[in-house]
Amino acid sequence: xxxxxxxxxxxxxxxxxxxxxxxxxxxxxxxxxxxxxxxxxxxxxxxxxxxxxxxxxxxxxxxxxxxxxxxxxxxxxxxxxxxxxxxxxxxxxxxxxxxxxxxxxxxxxxxxxxxxxxxxxxxxxxxxxxxxxxxxxxxxxxxxxxxxxxxxxxxxxxxxxxxxxxxxxxxxxxxxxxxxxxxxxxxxxxxxxxxxxxxxxxxxxxxxxxxxxxxxxxxxxxxxxxxxxxxxxxxxxxxxxxxxxxxxxxxxxxxxxxxxxxxxxxxxxxxxxxxxxxxxxxxxxxxxxxxxxxxxxxxxxxxxxxxxxxxxxxxxxxxxx
Length: 321
Ligand code: UTP
Prior knowledge:
The chain has ten helices and 17 strands. By secondary structure, the chain is an alpha/beta fold. The strands form six sheets. It has a seven-stranded mixed beta sheet with strand order 3-2-1-8-12-9-17, with helices on both faces. It has a two-stranded antiparallel ribbon with strand order 4-7. A two-stranded antiparallel ribbon has the order 5-6. Strand 2 (about 55-60), helix 2 (about 65-75) and strand 3 form a beta-alpha-beta unit. The longest helix is centred in the first third of the chain and has 16 residues, at about 35-50. Uridine 5'-triphosphate binds near residues 9, 13, 15 and 271.
């Protein structure tokens, strides 16, 4: 223990959930308040209790939610996690446009920007001096995880051990997909290198492809929980990443300067994704976890990957809400 740190990706806007604040401050409790951040820290505490050691938590925020996130966690005393083990850093922003590529305006003299995707975490950490900090503390691995999976294990000793044992540059937790078009990126090999294809970029041909055993060829979805070797990133990762065009709701001002908060998607954001970092590394261990025990993402209010489905999974795992 002590050689792995954890990086919480909390810079997203959570537009599908549609709440005003950062996703982590959302309360999923039924009989008592249970904030998403609290659930994640409870999961971290499981590992702390098992191993007898705290590990450093680095939280990525964006201009849009940094202050609220910091103030909330401070007010809640980091849900019992020692403050000296919690560090914040900011990700970058990128312009957002309408469907014709015209940039939206947020205020009269300010273009509309949104966080530039979760793929910038390593460069942003370097710029914030936190990779140097990691070296000074002997941290060699970073467990990157999403804010919205309330069941995931963080700095999971079994996952860390398996990744180290295989001598790979990165480990990726995966689950068996529950439907051919499930909204998860799929793990594969591309030109002999590890690679992940985002669900909205899967072609029909790929969805229907079968492997030698007749099983779906692209059957293992990533859950946005990776263990990256810092040295491998420093030596192999080029920093330059592809840009993904993602259809989203973009708040902006109208012709008369009125603020518009759209109810449905109205344009594009331009994002770098952490999954593209995998392809720049030479080796990756896909590490299958049981989806019912470790995958409860909260993307929407109701339906698939929602507050409702995550609550049901928490209850199934004996977590009181
Ligand atoms: P999502 O792709 O689900 O995006 O993020 P989102 O912004 O949270 O939600 P929607 O799509 O607007 O509804 C997956 C993870 O990556 C983080 C999110 O906070 C979440 O943990 N993320 C996303 C960032 O940290 N920065 C970003 O720019 C985008």
